[in-house]
Amino acid sequence: MEKENTPIIVANTQWDLPENLIKYVQEERMINGLIDIAKTLSPEESVGYAEVVAYLNPATNQAPLRSDVTEIYLYCVTQLMKGKKIEVPKDIAVDKISDNQMEKLNDLKKWIFKQRGGKEKNPILNALKEVFFENKK
Known about the structure:
Elements: H1 19-38, H2 43-46, H3 49-62, H4 67-83, H5 99-115, H6 123-132
Helix pairs in contact: 1-3, 3-4, 4-5
């Protein structure tokens, strides 16, 4: 049985991610991993808002982001905060992005999925898969 965990991919390793963001990524991956056991998720469905925010967050400290990337980042931050029942300041809230930006977001999610090595791997999900699926062969 595999014991490894899937790495969190970031745009810049000079700054550490906030602990709460790491926790959000881990929670989101666990939920998506459980859903994937029941119903196969696409790469863009497997990578959630927290993981996109974790990837882009360090880049915000390095240099200003392009306006379309900023909109995508703030959209993901907004969706993440709403999902956690955290009030989103009105001056940064982005509730909707263009179709082009959504396509770029999905492309980024696919890229993150590939860079992290594919589907989520952690001891709990691996054990569940082994007990409920691999022993049925």
